[in-house]
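Sharing a chain and its predicted structure for anyone who wants a worked example. Both blocks are below, sequence first, tokens second.
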Amino acid sequence: MISLINVFTVDPANQHRLLDLLVRATDEFVSRAPGFVSSTLHRGLDGTKVTMYAQWRSLEDYQAMRSDPAPLPYLQEALTISTFDPGMYEVIETFLPAAQRA
């Protein structure tokens, strides 16, 4: 499994619009792609950041989704109001509260 973390930087006046675009793209297209596991959308409290954490079964599944033209209009519009810094990660360790480990 791989994790993708995208940090978007946006003017606070456009944060809600960016969130809406990402929700629609994920709900209508990305979440239906083979190999999609989950995603979580985070809103920065100062209005300048939006972060999406997504998990995919494999890098190949993620790349196949990226080649699908269907979500492209949402992402292109998002790039007109924001910049983003994507990164691919491998989960090394997950920590739970001590009470849940027993």
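Comments welcome. The beta strands are 2-10, 36-43, 49-56, 82-89.
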